[in-house]
TrEMBL record:
Its EC number is 2.7.8.7. This is Holo-[acyl-carrier-protein] synthase. Mg(2+) binds at D8, E58. The gene is acpS. It holds the Pfam family ACPS. It is found in: Cytoplasm. It comes from Lacticaseibacillus suilingensis. The keyword Lipid metabolism applies. It comes from the Bacteria.
Protein backbone atom coordinates (compact mmCIF):
# COMPACT_ATOMS: atom_id res chain seq x y z
CA UNK A 1 0.00 0.00 0.00
CA UNK A 2 1.28 3.46 -0.87
CA UNK A 3 1.87 5.52 2.25
CA UNK A 4 3.41 8.58 0.60
CA UNK A 5 4.19 10.09 -2.78
CA UNK A 6 6.49 13.01 -3.50
CA UNK A 7 7.81 14.64 -6.66
CA UNK A 8 10.30 17.41 -7.25
CA UNK A 9 11.72 19.44 -10.14
CA UNK A 10 15.13 21.03 -9.69
CA UNK A 11 16.95 23.30 -12.11
CA UNK A 12 20.43 21.99 -12.90
CA UNK A 13 21.79 25.55 -13.23
CA UNK A 14 20.68 26.37 -9.66
CA UNK A 15 22.57 23.40 -8.24
CA UNK A 16 25.62 24.09 -10.41
CA UNK A 17 25.66 27.71 -9.21
CA UNK A 18 25.37 26.61 -5.57
CA UNK A 19 28.29 24.18 -6.00
CA UNK A 20 30.42 26.79 -7.81
CA UNK A 21 29.71 29.39 -5.13
CA UNK A 22 30.41 27.02 -2.24
CA UNK A 23 32.50 23.91 -2.94
CA UNK A 24 31.22 22.46 0.36
CA UNK A 25 27.66 22.37 -1.03
CA UNK A 26 28.05 18.78 -2.25
CA UNK A 27 29.30 17.67 1.18
CA UNK A 28 26.28 19.31 2.81
CA UNK A 29 23.81 17.60 0.46
CA UNK A 30 25.40 14.20 -0.09
CA UNK A 31 26.04 11.42 2.41
CA UNK A 32 29.64 10.10 2.46
CA UNK A 33 28.63 7.15 0.23
CA UNK A 34 26.82 9.43 -2.23
CA UNK A 35 29.83 11.76 -2.26
CA UNK A 36 32.11 8.83 -3.12
CA UNK A 37 29.93 8.12 -6.19
CA UNK A 38 29.76 11.85 -7.03
CA UNK A 39 33.56 12.15 -7.22
CA UNK A 40 33.64 9.62 -10.08
CA UNK A 41 31.79 12.10 -12.33
CA UNK A 42 32.81 15.41 -13.86
CA UNK A 43 31.24 18.22 -15.83
CA UNK A 44 27.57 17.97 -16.71
CA UNK A 45 27.26 14.42 -15.34
CA UNK A 46 28.49 15.57 -11.91
CA UNK A 47 25.91 18.37 -11.88
CA UNK A 48 23.17 15.90 -12.87
CA UNK A 49 24.19 13.52 -10.08
CA UNK A 50 24.29 16.25 -7.42
CA UNK A 51 21.02 17.81 -8.57
CA UNK A 52 19.39 14.38 -8.76
CA UNK A 53 20.34 13.46 -5.21
CA UNK A 54 19.22 16.86 -3.92
CA UNK A 55 15.89 16.44 -5.71
CA UNK A 56 15.42 12.90 -4.33
CA UNK A 57 15.80 14.27 -0.81
CA UNK A 58 13.15 16.93 -1.59
CA UNK A 59 10.79 14.30 -3.06
CA UNK A 60 11.36 11.98 -0.12
CA UNK A 61 10.59 14.71 2.41
CA UNK A 62 7.35 15.49 0.55
CA UNK A 63 6.37 11.81 0.47
CA UNK A 64 7.18 11.57 4.18
CA UNK A 65 4.78 14.47 4.72
CA UNK A 66 7.10 16.92 6.43
CA UNK A 67 9.22 18.62 3.79
CA UNK A 68 12.90 19.28 4.36
CA UNK A 69 13.62 20.33 7.90
CA UNK A 70 12.23 17.41 9.84
CA UNK A 71 13.82 15.13 7.24
CA UNK A 72 17.45 16.25 7.00
CA UNK A 73 19.55 16.02 3.83
CA UNK A 74 21.81 13.40 5.42
CA UNK A 75 18.82 11.23 6.45
CA UNK A 76 18.20 9.99 2.90
CA UNK A 77 20.83 8.15 0.87
CA UNK A 78 20.42 7.13 -2.77
CA UNK A 79 23.11 5.04 -4.42
CA UNK A 80 23.37 3.57 -7.90
CA UNK A 81 23.26 -0.22 -8.03
CA UNK A 82 25.50 -2.31 -10.29
CA UNK A 83 23.35 -1.47 -13.31
CA UNK A 84 23.22 2.27 -12.55
CA UNK A 85 19.68 2.20 -11.13
CA UNK A 86 19.19 4.62 -8.23
CA UNK A 87 18.14 2.90 -5.00
CA UNK A 88 17.26 4.60 -1.71
CA UNK A 89 19.51 2.72 0.70
CA UNK A 90 18.91 4.69 3.91
CA UNK A 91 15.89 6.68 5.08
CA UNK A 92 13.76 7.23 8.21
CA UNK A 93 10.49 5.66 7.01
CA UNK A 94 10.07 2.08 8.31
CA UNK A 95 8.68 0.74 5.00
CA UNK A 96 10.17 0.60 1.51
CA UNK A 97 11.15 3.71 -0.47
CA UNK A 98 11.15 3.61 -4.28
CA UNK A 99 12.72 6.29 -6.47
CA UNK A 100 12.86 7.40 -10.08
CA UNK A 101 15.17 10.10 -11.46
CA UNK A 102 14.89 11.70 -14.90
CA UNK A 103 16.89 14.53 -16.53
CA UNK A 104 16.44 16.98 -19.37
CA UNK A 105 19.12 19.42 -20.48
CA UNK A 106 18.01 21.89 -17.80
CA UNK A 107 15.95 20.01 -15.18
CA UNK A 108 15.96 16.95 -13.01
CA UNK A 109 12.66 15.39 -11.95
CA UNK A 110 12.38 12.85 -9.17
CA UNK A 111 9.58 10.81 -7.71
CA UNK A 112 9.60 8.90 -4.43
CA UNK A 113 6.97 6.39 -3.35
CA UNK A 114 6.85 5.20 0.25
CA UNK A 115 5.23 1.80 0.72
CA UNK A 116 3.82 0.63 4.02
CA UNK A 117 5.21 -2.57 5.49
CA UNK A 118 2.96 -5.55 4.85
Amino acid sequence: MIAGLGIDLTELARIEAAQNKNTGFANKVLTPNEYAQFTKFSGARAVEYLAGRFSVKESYAKAYGTGLGQVQLQDVETLDDDKGKPVITRHPYPGQALVSISHTATLVMTEVILEAQA
